[in-house]
Amino acid sequence: MSSNLTFKVGGVHMDEHKGLSESSPIQRLPEPKVVYIPMSQHIGAPCTPTVQKGDRVLMGQTVGTSDAFISSDVHASVSGTVLEIKKMYTADGRFCDCVVIENDGMNEAQTPNPISNYDSLPVDDFVDFTKKMGLVGMGGAGFPLHAKLKGQVPLDECIINGAECEPYLTCDHRIMLEKTAEILEGLKIFANFYNPNVSYMAIEENKPDAIKRMNEVIAATPRFKNLKVVSCQTKYPQGDSKRLSEAVVGRIVPQNGVTNDVGVFLTNVGTTLAFYEAVVEGKSSYERVITVSGAGIKEPKNLLVKVGTPVQDIIDFAGGLNDNAVEIVCGGPMTGKSVFDMQSPITKTTSGLLALSAEEMQLEDESPCIRCSRCVDHCPAHINPTTINSAILKEDVEYCAELHADQCMECGICSFVCPAKRTLAPSVKLAKREIKMQAMKAKN
Amino acid sequence: MDNTKQNPTVSERFVSLAPHVRSNDTTQKIMRDVIIALVPAMAGSIYFFGMNAAMLMAVCVASCVLAEFIFQKAMKKEVRIGDLSAVVTGILIAFNLPATAPWWMAAFGSAFAIIVIKECFGGIGSNFMNPAIGARIVIMASWAKLMTDYVSPEMVKNGGQLVVNDAWAVSSASADAVAYATPLGMLKAGTYEQLPSLMDMATGNIGGVIGETSAILLLIGALYLIVRKVMSPLIPVVYIATTAVVLVIAGVPVEYLPYHILGGGLILGAFFMATDYASSPINVKGKIIFAIGCGVVTAVIRTKASLPEGVSYAIALMNVCTPLIDRLTRTEAYGEAK
Ligand code: SF4
Ligand code: SF4
User: What is the pTM of this model?
Assistant: First the structure.
């Protein structure tokens, strides 16, 4: 087994805070009374509702679709009646149409349509299926899976991302422990497409039990002998697709590119599990495991939650908030979004809900940059956040472009490490957006 | 908090932009670590040079903090003396003075460093030169004699009077009795037989300015900073290595290299002054160029110039080059460009 693999530029070791929830087995969240199914749960075109007020829907039934290629169907996560369709915010702060369904509690599912001879079919036969089943990257970005299945360059390496490098999050860790065989079966199907000789399951070293379990199942299953577990150094952002591609197969993705451009198919473990469930069990993507954690949560947990469940229901089931909870974050603490409305629903890409205390956040006012160079040393994009910060404060977009601000991967490390507590990451992100806008203006 | 906003129409929840967690590093903690790192050398200097050293350190620290406080108040800027950076500057300035320096010279140098070099250029992080280096150069230019009037620890212990005000008169009258030639001065003059033992050089039992004498105590502090990740050994190591190489090229016999490395403030300068965050380049490539530059200039001054030592001039010169180096070594983004 290869171990200690990592990427070369930047990165940071940080307090993992995984102990809060890592040993708590996945529990199913009790049925929500009402679910709000967002029509925008991924990168790309939002879906249009295919149901109307008053319709009865079944669990797993399509409630939204789009003809756009970069888009993926959306499904009901409960059976019940459509109360209305209204615009609201999702937990990660998108504003979109949501199909509101009153749960009848019967969980009446629509007839599953698995693919039975999946071992012998070519990848082309899965593209449409995957789009219809609503499979998107569940690691956070939410890129529709079908759009990744075929690459411009022939894909010849296949990696499943089980790094889970953000602090607090343990949902991927738990599914690797509890759904090991299913995930490996999913990887096996991908391996059939891309690399039947050796395909990789990449896990950070801070999850030795998951690494062990994966290896045991592979050893016990002759069918999996072409699958290989690789362990990566515990270092944020190991789980970023480009960094993982570099760490595992040594392929460096060009600027503005994706792993597909260097022949690497790479997707998250949660997505792989969902892919398995879709192909083998015929189940569309309407629920996922999330981590509820942080010092502000009474009982940190890993929960199997239906898409569209309001944040409030989930927090309540985890014992509610402690008095010290300052902020609720949807996703990991480094890249997640603030939740401002407790009724907003979670999506397929929600990996966690964190209630953070002031102490964990280390809230402090900005002070002048002391040029300690920590932000430069740790930036995985190998750019200079502090100079970009001062350039964008002077609205010098051109200089920001010269400094390659557009290559920021929005990992948040620069803000995290800055002793002067400067808000570097948001300002580099702003610079990135300004550069894009200027480029668009120049084109028109 | 600039990156936070409350959106009262939706809820009362706290809202901020990612990342939502920060490391527990702060500017103040970094400066506190630097102060802790300087404590062994401070204690050593008091042991070797007596209460005069303690007095000078107190004067420098007090004047730096006071100068910063008064300037920031007068300019109606936020008072930032709490970040402890002025304390660090004060200690470093004292380290650059001989134990015989008069208090008013120490106070003047400190005020100059803080007001002219630091605050007038925008305060913490914006100084173009290490303030302590600036102070040393200004004092040196103004009162060269007082600045080079070294006493050796022996003289202090033997009750050899610490000549403060009349240094010039006394030392010219009985040069050998009071003025103490530094090891580098002896190297320059070729009076090798008078060199102290290397052991004395390493522990600091030699003459010189307060803080540059004990290499070992300074290195203990430096090691602490490296372990705490406050400082990277990159600049000091490259600096000292370059100095050694260039000295050898310039004809200094290899057996005298240790004297060059242990003497004349190279350790103090390389570890505690060249590494100043604000006035050294920001990325690795730049730091290496900067350190090589410091090394070359130091060695050239020591062998070719009329001055016995060149650390502060070398660092000051390279400090001025830092913006240029930063521009030449701009970071190229990750990934091969398309
Ligand atoms: S957020 Fe952007 S600029 Fe900051 S460290 Fe990450 S990649 Fe670099
Ligand atoms: S980490 Fe903060 S203080 Fe250090 S160089 Fe970057 S912006 Fe400046």
Answer: 0.90
